[in-house]
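Per-record layout

source: Gallintestinimicrobium propionicum
name: Large ribosomal subunit protein uL4
length: 206
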Amino acid sequence: MANVSVYNMEGKQIDTIELNDAVFGVEVNEHLVHMAVVQQLANNRQGTQKAKTRSEVSGGGRKPWRQKGTGHARQGSIRAPQWTGGGVVFAPVPRDYSFKLNKKEKRAALKSALTDKVANAKLIVVDELKFEEIKTKNFAQVMKNLDVNNGLVVVNENDVNVMMSAKNIADVKMALPNTINVYDIMKAGKVVLTKDAVKTIEEVYA
């Protein structure tokens, strides 16, 4: 089992903690990590592009002129694709880009992402995160003490003071153990976990 230092909010080491190898010490599967990231980005796409075909454009219900004898080429509708204001030939329609990964693949990808952070010394464990009031300055100071510029902070409970204090810090994202995902872990420069969050993650994913 990997031993990781435990810090307090002043950035001083106060203890060590053993991480469960079943979660934080697995063999990293880069393919599954890649697939999990691609899936999340694909599922976030709205796919809202849309253009009208000739059947959807309003107007053009009657033939603009008779078939023969006018000197013009034959036309059936002023909403045909060759007319200005007509429909698009192969118009794009809203599309669902999402796809599924099975549960085992998702769990394996998450464990691989966490293991990668531990292996590269980019996982920080803090004793606790507690604030008496909602103040961005206090949270920013804690991040500075821990030397975290771009981080994912995982706490065990939805503490309003902590969550709201971090809300206006652009490079910090807050999460709970049941809301962490591979994309956020890989995107973060460092992952900060409270001791309670570590226990919960090990209980859920081990």
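summary: DSSP finds seven helices and six strands in the chain. The mean pLDDT is 93.
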